[in-house]
Amino acid sequence: MRWSRRQFLASTAAAAALPRFARAATPLDIGATAAARGLAFGSAFDREVFEDTQWAGVLTAQARVGAVENSLKFDWLRPYGPDADFSGADAVVDFGLKAGMRLRGTALIWNDWLPDWLKWRSMNDRRAIFDRHIDEVVARYAGRVASWDVVNEPFLPIQGREGGYRKGYWFDAIGPDYIAAAFRRAAAADPNAELVLNEAFCEQDDELGVSVRPRLFDCVRRLKDDGVPVHAVGLQGHLKPHLPHDYERFAAWVAELAALGVGIKITELDVDDSHLPLEVAARDVAVVETLQRFLNAVLKVEAVSEVICWQLSDRYSWYGHADWYPKDRKPRSHFWDADMAPKAAAYATAEALAASAAR
């Protein structure tokens, strides 16, 4: 194959951008690298591990934390009515525990992706189902699922609801107090579980990101003042280099958030490459540069204890299923490619973790 000058330059740039870990042929074990600094590294995963042994091998070799991506969500457990089918979730949890991972449940209460049957229920029924869901799920996995995203993405100001809250069946039935109610019920169901409030968009400096940050901050402050057992805040980290961002300023805000008395987790790290160059080499360079700038900034915050990516491999990228993602490309958003080979992004992440201050 004869390369164009543009392709050659992109390839050269990719090689130059390759982190020192890769250039030195350092064995790649991101989980161990993070643990050496007192941090935890992990990945989302789900039922695909049962059919894809190659993926299962990469996951269990690298991740010390496993975030159950879908099987513990309401719509997966109760797709047809209030009675849950736990068979799939049980298998995924058993897999993670046998692999030695600390497990996180995502997401216990979320106003998105709820099954249609719920909308036909009265408000009283919804409140009862809300209580039942939390009680049953958290109690069933007590001592096995160590950490829960108790409430996911509570704010979406662009929907226009007072207070900037995200619309949904739970909010309609309970109002803003659904957040505190969920945390209190989860704590009662498993007093030893780590309870996390998880939110999106905060790393962005666009109109959406800067509108979510103060609302999340005030929410956490009120919950802590009221004695609600919120142990940590999860900040997703779906990085969008095409949108305004200032990761140093974001890190300063994260430090202020942590000062409220909560731990901080990066819970869904990846890079949205939909607006990056089509050429793979150039796109990989941009992904690496984005990850480096983000991690180098946010890992300065001592309260950040975990970095969890939203799937390790492009093979299971959620971007490829998004209707807005360009059809002229396949995602290069994650740390391993679709053939399960580590990319420069994996080495860049290991390098940033190794360079961070010890916890």
Descriptive labels:
359 residues; alpha/beta; TIM Barrel; eight-stranded parallel barrel; 41% helix; globular
Q: Kindly report the CATH topology.
A: TIM Barrel
Q: Could you describe the largest sheet, including whether it forms a barrel?
A: 8 strands, parallel, barrel
Question: How many independent structural domains?
Answer: 1
- The residue ranges in which pLDDT falls below 50 over 5 or more consecutive positions are 1-12
- At the first level of CATH, the class is Alpha Beta
In terms of structural class, how would the helical and strand content be classed? alpha/beta
Assembly of the depicted chains:
single chain
Q: What fraction of the residues are assigned to beta strands by DSSP?
A: 5-15%
Mean pLDDT: 94
Spatial extent as radius of gyration: 20 Å
Q: What helical percentage do the residues reach?
A: 40-55%
| Shape, principal axes of CA atoms | globular
Name the strands of the widest sheet in spatial order. Answer: 1-2-3-5-6-7-9-10
Report the end-to-end length measured between terminal Cα atoms.
Answer: 49 Å
